[in-house]
Amino acid sequence: MSKLQKKKPQSEKRKRVIETADDKSGVAVKSTVEKKPVRSLSDAGTEKSGQPMAGNFFARTAEFFREVKVELKKVVWPTRKQTTGTTVVVVVFVFIVAVFLGIFDYSLSKIVQVVLT
């Protein structure tokens, strides 16, 4: 068996080396990250043990909402002033586009009216 055909142990298969540049020194830093095993689409409705997940619905739903709560705590929400400012910009932009489209529609309808009569 050649070197290419040798099978790696399971622990080595899941590891991946990532090379990144250190911000301060610019030196490349290698770090090892363990990859999670990829589940196929045929496994979508089953747990790792092969059992259907239907009986675990409420536990999974509760876990989902716990994770949502944790992620929402990480969100940096805009201030009232930022929200008001961006809302005003959107309303003004919509008004300008509406006026432009109105003028364009009116002029095209007049052109069609002149051509047809």
Name a few traits of the molecule:
117 residues; mainly alpha; two-stranded antiparallel sheet; elongated; transmembrane helix; transport
Q: Tell me the span between the first and last alpha carbons.
A: 87 Å
Q: What summary fits the major beta sheet?
A: 2 strands, antiparallel
Helix content: 40-55%
The arrangement of helices and strands along the chain is: HEEHH
Rg measurement, Å: 29 Å
DSSP, total strands: 2
Number of helices: 3
Low-confidence stretches: none
Tell me the strand percentage band: 5-15%
Overall description:
The protein has a domain at 89-116. The longest helix is centred in the last third of the chain and has 37 residues, at 80-116. The protein has a two-stranded antiparallel sheet with strand order 1-2. It is elongated. With 117 residues, the protein is mainly alpha-helical. β1 (15-21) and β2 (28-34) form a beta hairpin. The protein has helices at residues 10-13, 57-74, 80-116; strands at 15-21, 28-34.
